[in-house]
Design goal:
By secondary structure, the chain is of the alpha+beta class. The chain has three domains: 8-105, PAS domain (Beta-Lactamase); 112-249, PAS domain (Beta-Lactamase, 2-Layer Sandwich), CATH 3.30.450.20; 315-542, Histidine kinase-like ATPase, C-terminal domain (Heat Shock Protein 90, 2-Layer Sandwich), CATH 3.30.565.10. Helices cover 49% and strands 25% of the residues. The chain is built from 13 helices and 17 strands. It is rod-shaped and about 175 Å long.
């Protein structure tokens, strides 16, 4: 049950479903907050109570106004009476989106008023029992802490009870028993309404007097009074002769109502602030999402540009490698071409000297075919090497090493550079085999150039294949003097080269192929009298 001077509070949405309730509301309904939230009054209260609540709520929602009502609700110890304050709530656009209600228990005052009415009715029933009735009435009034007044309208004299005087800080004898003494105590702002209510009852336009107003106490403070009364004696013509009624001190109730209104205003303000904050947050969220989309578009565009540039660099690297490969082919063709020339010369001499027999001609033709076949094989290897791979496949690392060595071996011998390969076993890798071979050829070409640039005697290049930590690792080691420490972190940058005629894209292309296209790594370090490049790719399978 809502306790005196505390309030039950709840907020409903436009469908009149509870969205927020306080602990006092749980006590009132006898249900938990979890059981109340999301439900309507028909699911919680008896039909008549729910109907009355819905009527009040709709009046607030449709009228967009504050509503104050006295209500009666059944409790465990009998009916309880409440003063209920209801007002609309609003969304960010200022539209009504619900109703907030607060109630305060006034059962004690209502019970006292009922006792007063019973006492007054008993007093009116019989003038003969007036003295006894007044005594009982005074007892009730004393118990309810209300005051009594008796107004003689003919002589404009008012009999104020002792409690009436004490309520304002006076002794009974300090108050003059006239109507104008009462008027001097009423707050000037409230007097027009008070007089209108009294006049309406005297003229028969209302069944009784009931009005709330402020009265000045002896100390100068103001108290709120609930004044209730009616005419109790008329003459034969119906002219009012005497009226009686009660004064109830409702200052505490007014303070509670004012506090409720203040809290409701603060609550409304807080709700509006939260709605505005949520709207601002939503706006910022939309701005952030737009910014994220813009950044994503810019990142995608930048990535696409980088990929195009990488493709250009790879294409340039492929062309540069192709030029070097043509040089290698020239080295490989020089010996078979010389052999063919000598074979043709020998056939000419044999013809001239008459020694050209059928056997000699067949043997010479077979040798020529072998030489031409060797040259054709070189062209096929060159063609396969520069055919781009379209899909990732499983390939043999050892086979790609042997093919790369075969393509450069003649050129290396011509420059007195020894090339050798060491492998305990083969490694199967997942990737693009031709691009992998391009990387190996680029590393071998760089090793040869470094040796020719720094050494007068013969050079050495060693290729080592091994499986390490789930990866197939190829190391290309030379004795060409190593990489200066000052440029070690730049050699993989695009267009950076230490050669006078270098393009600076070979190592960048190699890094892009291994790390971006095949999820591997490529690195370099200096070793004794040279450097070592390491290329590592994940193993597809280890033989």
């Amino acid at each position: 049950m809502c306790r005196i001077f505390s309030f039950c509070g709840g907020i409903k949405d436009r469908e009149l479903r509870y969205r927020i309730v306080n602990r006092a509301w749980e006590e009132l309904t006898g249900q938990s907050r979890k059981a109340i939230l999301g439900r309507i009054d028909d699911e919680i209260f008896p039909e008549e109570v729910a109907r009355r609540f819905r009527e009040y709520d709709l009046a607030v929602l449709n009228g967009d106004r504050l509503l104050v009502r006295e209500e009666t609700r059944d409790g465990e110890q009998g009916p309880r009476h409440f003063i209920t304050l209801k007002f609309p709530t609003y969304d960010a656009d200022g539209q009504v989106n619900g109703v907030c209600g607060m109630s305060t228990d006034i059962s004690e005052r209502i019970l006292a008023e009922r006792e007063l009415r019973r006492a007054k009715e008993a007093a009116e029933a019989s003038e003969r029992d007036k003295a006894a009735s007044e005594e009982r009435l005074n007892l009730v009034l004393d118990g309810a802490q209300d005051a009594f007044w008796d107004w003689d309208l003919v002589h404009d004299q008012v009999d104020f009870s002792s409690h009436w005087a004490a309520m304002l800080g006076y002794r009974r004898e300090e108050l003059e028993p006239y109507g104008d003494s009462w008027e001097r105590l009423v707050h000037p702002e409230d007097m027009p309404e008070v007089m209108e209510k009294i006049q309406a009852h005297l003229e028969g336009r209302s069944p009784f007097i009931e009005v709330e107003y402020r009265v000045r106490t002896k100390s100068g403070d103001w108290k709120w009074i609930l004044d209730r009364g009616k005419i109790v004696v008329r003459d034969a013509d119906g002219k009012p002769l005497r009226a009686a009624g009660t004064h109830a001190d409702i200052t505490r109730r007014k303070m509670i109502e004012e506090e409720l209104q203040t809290k409701s205003a603060l609550l409304k303000q807080e709700i509006n602030q939260r709605i505005m904050a949520q709207a601002e947050l939503n706006e910022k969220q939309e701005e952030l999402e737009m910014l994220n989309r813009s950044l994503c578009d810019q990142v995608e565009k930048s990535v696409a540009d980088l990929r195009r540039k990488d493709q250009v660099l790879i294409s340039q690297g492929r062309q540069a490698a192709m030029g070097e490969m043509i040089g290698n082919i020239a080295h490989q063709w020089r010996q078979p071409l010389n052999a063919l020339a000598m074979l043709i010369t020998n056939l000419q001499f044999a013809w001239r000297d008459g020694d050209l027999s059928d056997d000699y001609l067949e043997e010479s033709a077979a040798v020529a075919h072998r030489l031409i076949q060797k040259m054709s094989t070189t062209i096929n290897d060159f063609r396969d090497f520069f055919s781009p791979d379209k899909t990732m496949t499983t390939f043999s690392a050892l086979q790609q090493i042997r093919q790369a060595v075969a393509l450069v071996e003649t050129a290396f011998k011509a420059n007195e550079v020894v090339i050798a390969a060491e492998a305990e076993g083969d490694c199967l890798l997942k990737g693009f085999p031709n691009e992998y071979s391009q990387v190996l050829l680029n590393l071998l070409g760089n090793a040869k150039d470094a040796i020719l640039h720094t050494r007068k005697g013969s050079g050495q290049v060693l290729i080592i294949l091994a499986a390490e930590g789930g990866q197939g690792v190829v190391r290309v080691r030379d004795n060409g003097g190593g990489v200066p420490d000052g440029i070690m972190d730049k050699i993989f940058d695009p267009y950076f080269s230490t050669k006078s005629m270098g393009t600076g894209i070979g190592l960048y292309m190699s890094k892009t192929i291994i790390e971006r296209n095949m999820n591997g790594t490529i690195s370099v370090r200096n070793v004794n009298d040279g450097c070592e490049f390491s290329v590592a790719l994940p193993l597809a399978e280890q033989l």
